Amino acid sequence: MPFKRVNGYVIVIGVLHVLLAGLIFQFTTRYLECGSLLIASFFFSVDLYCIFTIDSYMIRRQFRYKHDSISEEGIIRHVVLKEKPVELPVEQEI
Q1: Closest CA relative to residue 45, chosen from 89, 93, 88, 2
Q2: For this UniProt entry, which segments traverse the membrane (predicted)?
Q3: pLDDT per residue over 40-58, tens digit each?
């Protein structure tokens, strides 16, 4: 759950977007369009960073109440994005 707490990369991406917003808003009069694009760019950047840095994720069934969910029962599918490389046994020379 990458959005359960604020991570360092979210703060860094946010600061970069705030600096970019300050720069863009000095040279434009279309504040609504540029602001909307910057907000969308922020969420897209955070999601893209998450996709590039995680190895796998689980698609889970949503439950209305927390006590209804059992950890393994709600899993629909486990998706692996990056598989660990297989290490072949190395023959030792004597």
Answers
A1: 2
A2: 7-25, 37-59
A3: 999 999 888 887 887 777 7
Asked if pLDDT for residue 1 goes beyond 50, the answer is no
pLDDT in tens, 15-44: 999 999 999 999 988 999 999 999 999 999
Could you give the CA distance from residue 41 to residue 44 in angstroms, rounded to a whole number?
5
* pTM across the whole model: 0.60
Amino acid in the structure at residue 80: V
Domain range list for the chain = 8-69
Sequence-separated contacts (24+) of 82-88 with Cβ below 8 Å: 82/55, 82/56, 84/55
d(CA 60, CA 93): 49
Please tell me the distance from the alpha carbon of residue 40 to that of residue 55, in angstroms, as a whole number.
25
- 57-73 pLDDT, tens digit per residue, is 777 777 676 666 566 66
